[in-house]
Structures are given as C-alpha cells and as structure tokens.
Amino acid sequence: MKHTKVKDLLNGTKTLHEVKAKGWVRTFRNNQFIALNDGSTINNIQCVVDFENTPDEILKRITTGAAVSITGTLVESQGAGQSVEIQVTKLEILGDSDPEKYPMQPKKHSLEFLRENAHLRIRTNAFGAIMRVRSTLSFAVHQYFQEKGFFYVNTPIITGSDAEGAGEMFRVTALPFDGTPRTEDGKVNFKEDFFGKETNLTVSGQLEGETYAMALGQIYTFGPTFRAENSNTSRHLAEFWMIEPEVAFNNLADNMDLAEDFIKYVIKYTVDKCGDDLKFLEQRLLDEEKSKPQAERSEMALLEKLSFVMDNNFKRVSYTEAIDILKSSKPNKNKKFNYIIDEWGADLQSEHERYLVEKHFKCPVILFDYPAKIKAFYMRLNEDGKTVRAMDILFPGIGEIVGGSQREERLDVLLQKIADLGIDEKELWWYLDTRRFGTAVHSGFGLGFERLVLFVTGMSNIRDVIPFPRTPQNAEF
Ligand code: 4AD
Ligand code: MG
C-alpha cells in the first residue's frame, strides 16, 4: 500500500479504511499517542499505538525525531482539536533518533539556537510554517507574472558589471587549472581573474533584464543576488533572492501600479493557501508579545495586518514632501531620531523610513522623485535637473521592500551621467546599445524576496526566513 500525506488524511472524510502514513515523531505520550508530522502541513496526525501488543523494544524506539511508517485504520477522533486519528495496526521504525543526542526536543528553542542548527530547525513548527509560506510566495510570484504575459529571464550570476555602482561585490576568482592549487608556502594560488576578466557575483539582474525587456516587452527575473555589505542588521543578507520585473513603455506611475498590484496579489494568494501556517505564526507572535509592555505591542495581529495591506492603497509621496514631513516632525526636540535630516538631498535612514510608514502615514508608502545624487546612474532624470524618477516602497516593520525606477532612455543624458560618475563607458557598451537602437521609455523594480517573506510571516530577523542564511557570521553550510 502506498502511504498518504498527513495533510490529505486530515482533510479526508472517508474513515474506517486502512491507511499508511510515513513521517517523523514529534511527541510520544503515555506510551500510546504518537503525534506524527510529515511536513505536508503544520498539523500532526495522532496515531494510537496498541501498546499492550507492541514489544517494549519497539516502544522504546518511538522517540522525538524518529522516522516511522505507520499502517492502521483511520477513525474519527475522540480527542479535542483533531478530526481523525489512526488506530495503529503495524508500526515500523525507519530511522532511530537518539533522545540523548537529538537537539530538537519538543520544547521552545531560542531563534539563535535554531540558527546554529539551520539543517534541523526546519523540523520545528515555526520553521515548517515559514518555509511552506516562502514556497507558496515563490509560486505566486511566477503565477502573477506568467498570467500577465511576462517572460521569465535567467540573468547571469557571474558578471562583469556592477549594476548598482555601489561596489558591494564579491569578486569571482578561478583556481589555476594546472592542478596545483597551493603555492609552496601552502597558500591558495588564485588565478587573478575569471578567464582574464574581472568578474563578481551579481548584485542585481536589472541591466541584463533591461536588454530583454527591450525585445520581449515585459520580463521578470527571480534569482539569487549578492551584496558584500558588512551590515549586520536584521534586514540584510549577503545572499538574497530578488524579483526584478522590467517593462518596455512603462513610465514611473505604471511602475508603481505594477509593484502595488503585484505585492497585493502574492500576499492574497498566500493568505488563501497557507491559512493554517499563518494562523500558527500569528499565535506565536501574540504569545511573544505578551511579555512586552503594552505600548510596544503591535496594534494589529498578523492576518489583520496582511488584510490591511491588501485592502488599502499605498500612499504615494515625493521625496521632497517626505523631507518636509520629517523636518516638521520636530524629531530633535523629542529625540526621535539619531540622525536628523535638515537638508534636502540627504539619504533617508531606516529610522526616517519607519517614522513615515509607522507613525505618520500608518500604511505602506511609495516614495518617489529622489535626488539624483543618492541614486544609481541608470535612473531617468526629471525636468528639474536634480531629481530622478526613482521609487522605493516602504513597509511597516520592514522599511524598504522595493527599489525601482523609470530608466534613463536618452543616450546623450545617460552618457553624460556615466562620464560624471567616472564609470568606463566601454564596460557598458552592450547596455548602451539598448539606447542606441530602438530606445524607449521603460521601467522596472526589484523586490527583496526575504523582506516580503519577513512581512508575511511576521518574523523579525531576515536570517529566519531563508533556509541557509549567508551573513558575515554565518556561511558554514
Ligand atoms: O534597492 P536595490 O539595491 O535595487 C536594485 O538592485 C535595483 N537594480 C532593482 C531594480 O530596479 N531592478 O535592491 C532592491 C531590493 C531592496 O528594496 C531590498 O528589498 C532588497 O532588494 N535588498 C536586500 N535584501 C536583503 N539583503 C540585502 N543585503 C539587500 N539589499 C537589497
Ligand atoms: Mg534601494
């Protein structure tokens, strides 16, 4: 007999028939009740063992973490909180788990401890829920763009370009090909560059994505990107996944509409599909908040917060308006900010972004028309000659979740910008060809996938929403 997924057993209505399930023991109570989980759902199925007729050697091996195969009859459950259970007729231990050594005992572990055990933390309820939500969000991303006729483009991971011009890149070098990877003193003898050219891991697929948008019309990327920034924050990873749509003939307003519609769609899709996981995560947060003073607790529970984002328009505000709001908030008097903005042209710090979103507007905000000086070279210069058609989307509790812009489509203006920044024009010859041949208005944005997963799961550290986080401290496996 083939085994059935626990999710399907729990959702099925046909009882009193023989079933088989395989999974891992979460708990074993009173020598009788196994809570079995197979990862298909956050919910366990209870399996009732006929302990009088089960040898002691087997009972002893039913421990937390052990893999088991269970055959039995699916019956309506007498216990509260579960519809069905399995009356076990045959139990096979597939893989033992030594209770003296297994780190994932059924108790609450700290997130720090779990991070050190990234390969095992997925066996906890919280991480099972987070990673199922992450998977569903990924699928929703593809579904959204595919339904709208966008084409999925795989841009290079190893590249010679620095799309953001921020210099936060990991260099790619090649080991020598002659089989002597070490010098005499034992050091790794790297070849200088990759195939004779200076290359790095991509920080963004945008520039390559633009070349595809200028042929296929509307495209998106969804892949890993890398930033060698040494920022140890709860919002930054050295390796993160980014979704970058790019659309020919879209202006900045179209770009904002697309980003807002896209975010609402993927959240709605996930709320519809991941109800049990999100309810669990919501309860987890509520329990956590009980230990905080009232003033620090969030005003909305997780699902309410997600509905709020889906049901309300994002507030669209220019950078200049935002600066005026920040200036008149008298932050210096109330000591609200460590870093006070008193001049137009300064970059916003995350505390300013959070003030705008969480205190002032109390909803997601799209900030646009930033000073040219603080943004990347490829953004479309406005008629005022000092701002560019940039847009950042700021989310409550997260800060920046999206960065995008209308692109500079005029060759002469772009060349001037490149020259002013001291970028070598020859490095970008292929990019500039899009402006030489059939240039047109076009726009796009990048959404940091982990920041979206953070928002949807309500987690507070980005290391907890990617399977194996890469941060300056953590790249062990
Ligand atoms: O604002 P960024 O740097 O924009 C770009 O890379 C553009 N090329 C995107 C485009 O227009 N196609 O990054 C985009 C988003 C940020 O808003 C943030 O959500 C996320 O990527 N991000 C990070 N996420 C996790 N860890 C980091 N170190 C991140 N850096 C950026
Ligand atoms: Mg940005």
TrEMBL record:
Any Pfam family the entry gives: tRNA_anti-codon
PROSITE patterns documented for this protein: AA_TRNA_LIGASE_II (PS50862)
Organism: Flavobacterium cerinum
Sequence ranges assigned to domain Aminoacyl-transfer RNA synthetases class-II family profile in this UniProt record: 131-467
Record localization: Cytoplasm
Source species, domain of life: Bacteria
Keyword Mitochondrion on entry: no
UniProt keyword Amino-acid biosynthesis present: no
Cited SUPFAM superfamilies: Class II aaRS and biotin synthetases, Nucleic acid-binding proteins
Subunit structure: Homodimer.
Keywords: Aminoacyl-tRNA synthetase, ATP-binding, Cytoplasm, Ligase, Nucleotide-binding, Protein biosynthesis
Family: Belongs to the class-II aminoacyl-tRNA synthetase family.
The protein, known as: Asparagine--tRNA ligase
GO molecular function ontology, one term from the record: asparagine-tRNA ligase activity
Catalysed reaction equations from the record: tRNA(Asn) + L-asparagine + ATP = L-asparaginyl-tRNA(Asn) + AMP + diphosphate + H(+)
EC number: 6.1.1.22
InterPro entries: Aa-tRNA-synt_II (IPR004364), aa-tRNA-synth_II (IPR006195), aa-tRNA-synth_II/BPL/LPL (IPR045864), Asn-tRNA-ligase (IPR004522), Asp/Asn-tRNA-synth_IIb (IPR002312), NA-bd_OB-fold (IPR012340), NA-bd_OB_tRNA (IPR004365)
